[in-house]
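Example record

The entry below shows one chain as it appears in the dataset: sequence first, then structure tokens.
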Amino acid sequence: MFNFFRKNYFLGIDFGTSAVKIVELTLKNQKAHLVNYGWIELGLSLDSNGKEVKLLSFDDKLKIRLKDLVKRMELKSNSAYVSMPGFSGLVVLIDFPAMKREELEKAIQFEAHKYIPTPLSEISLGWDFVSKEEENELLGKKNPARKVQVLLVAAPNKEVARYESIVRGTGLAVKAIELETFSLARSLVGDDLGTFLIIDIGARATNIMLVDKGIVKVNRNIDAGGNEVTNTIADSINISKQRAEAFKKEGKDLLNSKESSIIIPTLEMIANESLRIISAYRERGRDARIDGVILSGGSAKLKGIDEYFSKTLEIRSSLGNPWKKIIVSEQLSSVVKKMGTSYSVALGLALRGIEEYQRS
């Protein structure tokens, strides 16, 4: 028997570096509504009953906890859209002369070797045209002066299989897996036709991406994030890491105050890489302007961080709002406000489900 009532529910599972977050949305009157949400903190050593799990791998422990969470959430969905961390894969934009599709596919395989050090047999490789107009108008017309832009996405087969195994262990089917880069762009920028720099500061890593008219044009990963920010604050004002983590969200401005400002090397590193991306983009021409910087991730709640990046990058920076197009019940509005950008990836995944549903 078919479960037709489940077709209008969309589940996103974000495998972050410090937690797994789940969001379930439904579509009513062409608007996305929040149905359910949940999370698991990583660093797992206990099962769902609070007992220590011995002789199990990290992934097996995660399966136990995730299965328990899925059961408690009483999800309406029976399949999920799943993310992988941005540093797990590769996103690159490549220009090709206009050619027939069969020739282009061979050219992409050849070009991929320049960017991917491992054998392509070990890689899940995907690509798409940056512009559908380019696809329709240029493909098949052999004119070397004309170019077709292709977005190449690659991820190790082993990692893709790993996340599929974890999710299927909960009883859910995997609808699709994508790099969190695209989930972030979908929830924070969506169909906005401007050009934005997204800085997503996760616990372990930072993802910086340039999104132009909804398309990811540049993607960089820095192997440093919120954990290093917390450590610097703890060492600078001589408090515990636990207090420093809370201070990041509720304390005073440590970045811009003349009396008590501190230098946080991780933020300087992120700012410097962002400036390089911005500079390279602006070299394209006079019309290459960036409309704003969008901050995301747990450390985006650090007081004064928007002002810090606004001054350093000389572009207006603000905290992203992945909930702006989501209808939330009055009872959950205060909870959602506290969650802020931490559910950006999970929301972006569920929104992909809604987009595909609307196109079908």
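Notes for this example: The chain has a mean pLDDT of 87. The first helix runs from residue 58 to 73.
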